[in-house]
Amino acid sequence: MADRRKTCACHRCGAQLRVPPEAQALRCTTCLAVTWVRQNEPFGLAHNGDIQLENFLKKPIGFLTSKFDLFASSINKYPGSSMPCHRQGSKRALLCGVNYRESIWELKGTINDVKCMRYFLVEKMGFPNDSILILTEDETDPNRKPTKQNIESALKWLVKGCKSGDSLVFHYSGHGKQQLNFTGDEVDGYDETLCSLDWETEGMILDDEINATIVRPLPKGVKLHAIIDACHSGTILDLPYLCRKRREGNYIWENNNPPSGARKGTDGGLAISFSACGDNQTSTDTDTDALSRDKVMTGAMTYFFIQAMQSDQPEMTYGYLLRAIHNAIQKASTTVGLSGPIAALVGRVFHTGFSQEPQLSSSEIFDIDTVPFIL
Questions:
Q1: What is residue 328's three-state secondary structure?
Q2: pLDDT per residue over 88-107, tens digit each?
Q3: Which of 46, 166, 195, 369 could pair covalently with 199 via S-S, beta carbons 3.0-4.6 A apart?
Q4: How many whole angstroms from its chain centre is CA 62?
Q5: DSSP run (H or E) holding 299
Q6: Which of these, 91, 85, 87, 162, lies nearest to 125 by C-alpha position?
């Protein structure tokens, strides 16, 4: 009897997959990514498995459905350990979201950012469930609350024992600030910082500390990507080179090495950071109807990063990704709502034309328009 099963293309690698009757999703045997084959599933996937940008814009709520929450609830359960164990493989991620609930600094979209990023990494990028560590206020384990001590411990976990071929991801969504630098290793005279849940009592996490923890130890062959959705985050990893957009519209690399001569590079590995904005700029949460009819809050940087990664661009380069995020944020700037202390202080409901310029920085200079972006 003839085999009547249909085929579809893996959304990630393009391999042809045979679809059994009534199947809703398939795991690719080549790249292990999951491809949904029903149109009513998350992301509004078509039967050929391709992710359409328009559907993604219309249905980001698919990240947060009860089906997703059931899937996500199992990811962080590791008996006998407060940290995920390392699986045989080369992908590992730390995702941190801080909402600062019941404070004047409260944000609405950061934990949603983590949920979206986790789903994206596991289902679309092939990251193993047990190689992702989550820190948010929703976690019941006290070791997984985004306190300063826990974030610092998690950063050490991220790079511990990494070896050539490993791909590491650090995603942070929360507040970022600046403070005066007194050591002479900042070009602009300010340290950039991340604000933990307890930053007002325990202090902020300095860019110097982040660099020393997850950048300088990176051995040859290891690649680290940071996606930072926070204010004043342009050089939050203190990387030696910053890719700056010129007035003409093109990008050039600038030397961001400290005047003091302090070493900020890796131990042979590659560290690359996508930040929500420049060191002197602010970023924002979004609550537009375009994101969801239920007004699910997300960070602009996180949302548009994932959106750009879901596009049908045949070859995703760093340059394409950077420009796509920039263009999407600029296009949305007249409809994106503010939340948190900024909105409370200035009394504005909508932010029209906010100055948020996504930044790319790196431990090495490379051609952003020819080097493919691969997690």
A1: helix
A2: 448 999 999 999 999 999 98
A3: 195
A4: 18
A5: strand 298-299
A6: 91
Cα–Cα distance between 222 and 159 in angstroms, integer? 9
- At 157, phi and psi to the nearest 5? -60, -40
pTM of the model: 0.74
The residues assigned a catalytic role are 175, 231
Q: Which residue has the tokens 């050039």?
A: 252
Find out whether 93 and 225 touch, Cβ atoms under 8 Å.
no
The DSSP string of 36-95 is E-STTSGGG--TT-PPPHHHHHH-GGGGGSHHHHHHHHTTT--TT-SSPPPPSSSEEEEE
pLDDT at residue 38 is higher than 90: no
Select from 170, 274, 259, 243 the least CA-distant residue to 213. 170
Residue 328: which of 114, 57, 97, 112 has the closest Cα?
57
At which residue do the structure tokens 């790319």 appear?
360
To the nearest 10°, report the CA torsion of 279, 238, 324, 105.
Answer: -50
| Tokens 């034309």 -> residue | 353
Residue 68 reports pLDDT greater than 70: no
CA 16 vs. chain centroid, Å, equals 29
Amino acid at residue number 164: S
Helix (H, G, I), strand (E, B) or coil at 359: strand
Binned at pLDDT 50, 70 and 90, residue 280 comes out as confident
Residue 118 near residue 75 (C-beta atoms within 8 A): yes
Strands 25-27 and 34-36: antiparallel
Average pLDDT over residues 76-93: 52
Tell which wins on pLDDT, 359 or 7.
Answer: 359
| Contact predicate 356/277, CB 8 Å | yes
Is 293 a residue whose pLDDT tops 50? no
Q: What is the largest CA-CA distance in the chain?
A: 78
